[in-house]
């Protein structure tokens, strides 16, 4: 028994070796358990990160009729001629691109099928919208360029016609001006074709003015074409604008030559930096005012406009002189 007890003593070399092996095995088991727990925690963290990114990306691609569609987040993958809706889509596209840049920086290794599909759909939506918007810009520029060519061709014919020349309708140059402004609104600052159109417009104005100067004896006011109940107020506003522009001028006669208000919606920069856009709906009519300043009688063609307000009402009438032609006083009436 004594011999057995001695052999079984914990201090015996054999028993100590066994105890050390057991302790080492227990330490290995504890390490494995700790590693497994850490791996599970990392896996859960990765899953939570993937779910969070899916929550951020999906609203931009879940269209109408799909699950949790959010009309304030969804990026329609095409442009539109509606300026208000276009501004909305441009803002959503900018948001989505910034979010994707942040997503790329996050460097998600294991995206999973749902997140990978949301990413694919969003990249496609951005690409599709930008391509469609580029086509929209091109159509707007082409429309302005076509209109400018048409007017240039007409003026060239009239310049060759001499005394038989026919003058442009005043609304034609005003319409071209609006078309150029619309093209500038969607194409953004620095577009060379817009600059060329603006320079061409200035030349067309000068050519039109030269034709009109050559026909001073034939220059007369266009009769009233407007029959709205606010005719008198519009004439008064046109006269006020003319007097403000020409101090001391005496008004001889005023007509409103548009048959009705013309309504247009445009997208335009909010300031000279062109960093933000706004949507504006405007109604306009054209007026003519014959005025005498000193010994000169001139026919002024004015734009009168009013803007749609946030509450749905129309704001006050404002305007400016678009064109001025010399005329004979006896031709005023």
Question: Layout of helices and strands, plus pairs?
Answer:
Layout: H1 2-8, H2 13-57, H3 83-106, H4 112-161, H5 170-187, H6 192-213, H7 231-245, E1 250-256, E2 262-269, E3 277-293, E4 296-307, E5 318-326
Antiparallel strand pairs: 1-3, 2-3, 3-4, 4-5
Helix pairs in contact: 2-4, 3-4, 4-5, 4-6, 5-6
Q: Distance between the terminal alpha carbons, to the nearest Å? A: 144 Å
Strand content: 15-25%
Structural class: alpha+beta
Order of helices and strands: HHHHHHHEEEEE
Shape: rod-shaped
Let me know the number of strands.
5
- Separate helix tally: 7
Flag low-confidence runs.
1-6
Q: Kindly provide the radius of gyration, computed on alpha-carbon positions and rounded to a whole number of angstroms.
A: 37 Å
Helix content: 40-55%
* Overall pLDDT confidence: 88
Largest sheet: 5 strands, antiparallel
């Amino acid at each position: 028994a004594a011999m057995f007890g001695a052999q079984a003593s914990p201090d015996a070399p054999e028993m100590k070796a066994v105890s050390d092996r057991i302790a080492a095995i227990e330490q290995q088991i504890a390490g494995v358990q700790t590693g497994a727990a850490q791996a599970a925690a990392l896996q859960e963290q990765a899953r939570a990160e993937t779910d969070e990114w899916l929550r951020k990306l999906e609203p931009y691609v879940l269209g109408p009729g799909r699950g949790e569609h959010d009309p304030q987040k969804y990026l329609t993958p095409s442009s539109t001629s509606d300026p208000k809706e276009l501004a909305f889509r441009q803002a959503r596209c900018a948001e989505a691109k910034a979010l994707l840049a942040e997503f790329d920086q996050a460097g998600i290794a294991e995206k999973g099928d749902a997140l990978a599909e949301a990413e694919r759909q969003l990249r496609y939506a951005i690409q599709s919208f930008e391509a469609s918007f580029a086509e929209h810009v091109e159509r707007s520029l082409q429309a302005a360029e076509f209109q400018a060519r048409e007017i240039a061709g007409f003026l060239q014919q009239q310049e060759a016609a001499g005394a038989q020349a026919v003058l442009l309708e005043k609304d034609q140059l005003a319409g071209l001006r609006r078309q150029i402004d619309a093209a500038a609104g969607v194409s953004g600052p620095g577009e060379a074709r817009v600059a060329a159109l603006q320079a061409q417009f200035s030349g067309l104005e000068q050519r039109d003015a030269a034709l009109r100067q050559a026909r001073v004896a034939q220059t007369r006011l266009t009769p009233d074409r407007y029959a709205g109940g606010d005719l008198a107020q519009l004439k008064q506003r046109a006269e006020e604008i003319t007097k403000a522009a020409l101090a001391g001028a005496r008004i001889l006669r005023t007509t409103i030559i548009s048959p009705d208000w013309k309504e247009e919606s445009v997208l335009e920069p909010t300031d000279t930096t062109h960093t933000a856009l706004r949507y504006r709906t405007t109604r306009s009519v054209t007026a003519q005012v014959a005025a005498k300043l000193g010994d000169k009688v001139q026919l002024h063609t004015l734009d009168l406009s009013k803007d749609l307000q946030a509450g749905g009402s129309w704001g006050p009438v404002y305007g400016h002189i678009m064109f001025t032609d010399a005329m004979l006083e006896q031709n005023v009436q």
